[in-house]
Amino acid sequence: MASLEDLPSDPNYVYFKSVDRVQCRPILTGENAKPTFESIPTIDASQIFSADLEARKILAEEIGQAAKDVGFFYLVNPPVSPDKMDAAFDALAKFFALPHDVKMKYHVNNSPAAKGFTPVNPADKRKGFGGAREAFGMGNDYTNPEQHAIKVAPAGTVPLNQWPDDELPEFRQNVYSYFTEVYLFAKKLVQIFALALGLEETALDQFFEVPFTDITINHYPPQPDETEYKQVLYPHADYGAFTLLAQRKIGGLEVLNANAIWVKVPVIEHAFVVNTGSYFELISGGRWRSTIHRVCAKGNTDRTSLPFFFSPSPTTTIYPMVPAEDEGLKDLHRNIGKEHIRGMMADRPTHPFVKKLKALGLRPDDYTYEMVSQPLV
């Protein structure tokens, strides 16, 4: 994953990381400016589980247009309990408040899937970040009984998630209560996206039978000496299908429009900010773009974001489900499990699992997601 020091600086261009390479966009103003968005659309999600197909189609039309024009939109009135969202935020605040040595017991290096705690990287400030960032992640782990409604892990599967049960007995329950509701919401949203492409409502279900899920909570602890408003997360595009982001109190998310102007995304509590990623860009034949975004904030503020990343099943190969508008996508097929392993190899070269995988000398075509959850020989 590129860092700020890897991105060139030019007053006439914005540089960003998209999928696996650095790209740039010219900053256009005045008569050179293109028609583009200047704010993020807001869509009412209250009809997503309506028994009325026409009501769901109206919602799908709004979402499809927003995904095409912006790639980001708010979903207000989602079918997720505000109390459960607040409880998840509160549980996470308690985790990040634990002593550093306690949090390190759950370091991501202890999980083959790199789930758990990521400590602050002191190099971040040297690279130009306006603050420090720590994180906690959880996702697919079918050894967890809370996920057995999705799938039961086969014999020999190793646990992937890590839970601070000794220090915070309520943490796991609060996070899973939130996860379960957002998961069901995301599964239904897949069907709304199918309608938005003019397909049958269940046409995309084949890609999401056992979807790839990931919650990576980012916490930016306050840095008293950092009072300047600046980047704390570099410009990038997401590679998944879509992200459901919950924000509370302090925002900082900004989205890049066609003129390379950053558009702020203010906090709407108990709503979701949704953005489409590169997997949906492929499935939609290029109709929906994976839009560039970043996070800016004052380093002396305390900020937590709660994104839920949703992608096709790890064993699935995706391709355009409608005629491709982008010739580069026309004949493209991507296997989700292989893409995940490639990404992990690039992003976490020092992780014990990655080192073991490299030691096996496998070619990228030999990668399978099962390698993460089964012991490597």
UniProtKB/TrEMBL annotation:
PROSITE patterns: FE2OG_OXY. The keyword Isomerase does not apply. InterPro entries: DIOX_N, IPNS-like_FE2OG_OXY, IPNS-like_sf, Oxoglu/Fe-dep_dioxygenase_dom. Keywords: Iron, Metal-binding, Oxidoreductase. Signal peptide: none annotated. Residues 211-312 form the Fe2OG dioxygenase domain. The keyword Iron applies. It holds the Pfam family DIOX_N. GO terms for biological process: small molecule biosynthetic process. GO terms for molecular function: metal ion binding; oxidoreductase activity. Belongs to the iron/ascorbate-dependent oxidoreductase family. PANTHER family: FE2OG DIOXYGENASE DOMAIN-CONTAINING PROTEIN, OXIDOREDUCTASE, 2OG-FE II OXYGENASE FAMILY PROTEIN. This is Fe2OG dioxygenase domain-containing protein. It comes from Cladophialophora immunda.
